[in-house]
Amino acid sequence: MRPREIATSRAAYSEPFDLPRDAGATPNRYTRRAGIRVISVASLARRLPLYLRLMRFDRPVGTLLLLWPTMAALWIATSGRPPLALVVVFAIGTIVMRAAGCVINDYADRDYDARVARTRDRPLATKQISELEALALFALLLAVALLLLFFLNATTRRLAIGGVAIATLYPFMKRWTYLPQVVLGAAFSWGIVMAFSATGAGLSDAAWLMFIASVLWIVAYDTLYAMVDRDDDLRVGIKSTAILFGNADRAMVAALQISTVVTLALLGLQLHYGIAYFVGLVVVAALFVHQQRLIRRRDPARCFDAFRNNVWVGFALFVATVVELELPMLLKSFGGP
């Protein structure tokens, strides 16, 4: 039997990266007339590593930066008893939406990435993946995310639509404003709002305090990320908070980090949390101090290390939240006070 065939536009492939003749293409009189090239499933399988790179599956830092605060929100919203089904749905949703965000980001930046040292090898920048393929992959990821919404309540579904809109808008904000990191902060923090809604806890003051803390934190760490590419961004015309802050970048990142810790402390006070949670905040503050030491000379490689270090910030917050909520119940089960 002939392999299953999927049609893609011949025009989508640039000459140097056109599909090889033995890749499973089987044109006929109809596809020739329409200018369509047919690609077999085997050919798509050979291209899978490129798709995985486009979705950043080889770089899980961004996924973890999304995952830890979202999981912490689930634990907070349910007082330490999140349903397993919701944990699974939000974990998968985090992976899928982060992948979708990477695809649409690279699609929006495809002409700029080729002129930036750190991003010039991305599959869209090198034209190893066509624009049509990228958009099809983005649509597929959104379809998977849509399926996950069937496990959530109606309010959370409506919130999810807003989250997709913000995430799609973010890559294009880099052309219009020096504050795209704020839009990214809202997009990355939207899972917190959805977590509170999905558990039935509602959009309480605690939900919005955590959302604000997350936005402040994300603007801080994405400014560190933008500091890596600042010279290239200035040359190609991309805007960022790193460019906006200029020589005040380290001071502004410090102010955002301090504001993050203060807002998280207010969250803990409102929820009447105890020592475990606030010890976690001390760890978060210590990690922020370490990041400030890394960026003191604004060396791009060290700025990137500081950005990556934020995975541990999110992990510390999650662990502190879980311990704060689970420890009293464990002590009680063993006959403690």
Describe, in short, the structure shown.
With 337 residues, the protein is mainly alpha-helical. The chain is 69% helix and 3% strand.
What would CATH call the class of the largest domain?
A: Mainly Alpha
**Strand segment count:** 2
Q: What's the CATH architecture name of the largest domain? A: Orthogonal Bundle
Topology order in helix (H) and strand (E) letters:
EHEHHHHHHHHHHHHHH
Structural features, described:
The structure is a single chain. The chain has 337 residues and is an all-alpha fold. It folds into 2 domains: 1-47, no CATH class; 55-333, Orthogonal Bundle (Tetracycline Repressor, domain 2). It is built from 15 helices and 2 strands. The chain has helices at 29-34, 41-54, 61-77, 84-108, 110-113, 131-148, 154-173, 180-198, 205-228, 230-236, 241-245, 249-270, 275-294, 300-308, 310-333; strands at 5-9, 36-40. Strands 1-2 form a two-stranded antiparallel sheet. α3 (61-77) packs antiparallel against α4 and α4 (84-108) packs antiparallel against α6.
